[in-house]
Amino acid sequence: MFQNQTFTSRYFDGVSAVPEEGTVLIHGQTLDFLSGEVAHKLNLLQFTEFTLTHKGCKLTLMPDEVKESPVLEIICSKEDAKKLESLWIQSKKNESHAHAFFYSIREMNPLVLGALSIIIVGIIGFFYFKGLEMVTNLIPVSMDKQLGESVQLKIDSQFQECNTKATDRFFTEALKKVVPKGSPHQFKVSVIGSAIPNAFALSNGKIYFFSGLLNDAKSQEEVIGVLAHEIAHVEKRHHMRNLVKAGGTSLAISLVVGPGLGNMEFLETFTEIGSTILVLKFSRDFETEADVTSIAYLRNQNLSPSGLLSFFKRMQEFEKENTESDDNQTDKNAKNDQVVTQSFTDFLSTHPATEERMKSLKSLIESGKKGTIKKVVSDKTWKEVQAVCLEFKNSDSK
């Protein structure tokens, strides 16, 4: 490629800060540097790094971390610099298969290389998180129970329950129908006094319903639909899968940006995640899975699945009203109670009922059998259920 071509150059010997000014004669892969009485005969293969500069190019003889490296700077056009770089890369590729692969990548167009990098990272990420999903299968269900119980202690200490014989009867009958046979979980429902119309489940099978949901429910099937959805979260181990994903993500970030494994920072981070992960909102995929699974639970018992959709519609209306009233002044005590309650429901509840999700749920319900059973307790008992904790609803509305 180069046949006895001469270029102006400078040679830094790695000792003196003053370079030797001279010329370099390039013939094949041999570089002869001449400066007065000084001469250096170098082979292109000897240089460990090649850098393009605004004046031409710079060749570094050895890695800087070893010691200060001799450097040869060649003053030439961009075209000649590119040609010399190609010649250097070709010499490096001939060293070994590993070098051939590495330097072939270096030769690629930056845009193509960027696109390829994104694809590779995407593929690795996909299999990484799929692998994390499989890790959950290796964790015993008893761990779900322990995690749930640790969070339950915190919740029970902050909220006042107001269960009655009617609510116990209703949820006992509903659980008998909805919980799938052979479930490894022990489910129990408690009612929390609050006007917020929502519900959430812990990984140990403890499910909490806010009394506002029962007070405002249009029918039993609404509450049963929400119950089925929360049971699905527990049965599908969404809490543990969240924990594993969060821990795996933390580990991946630590390995990429600088691991804190040496001083146990990662373990500390993982512990913090473990104490809070159960109060994180579920991902869209988990919510979709819970929707689909809950509909299947209801249909298996010939229960009407339309109640869940009805609940989401009311949730949407509630969210709109709540947004519109944000600027209005409210009673300080009521507002404080709502803030505390909302802080938990924001974390623990299902995601807001988006239009997209409601459309998917509606399509799912319409595509299968409707279910004929809409009640699990008598109308009298249901009225008693709806009247639970009304003092909390009335105090919040003042």
Automatic annotation (TrEMBL):
Its cofactor is Zn(2+). The keyword Metal-binding applies. It comes from Leptospira montravelensis. The keyword NAD does not apply. Binds 1 zinc ion per subunit. Residues 185-364 form the Peptidase M48 domain. Keywords: Hydrolase, Membrane, Metal-binding, Metalloprotease, Protease, Transmembrane, Transmembrane helix, Zinc. The chain crosses the membrane at residues 111-129. Belongs to the peptidase M48 family. This is M48 family metallopeptidase. InterPro entries: Mito/Outer_Membr_Metalloprot (IPR051156), Peptidase_M48 (IPR001915).
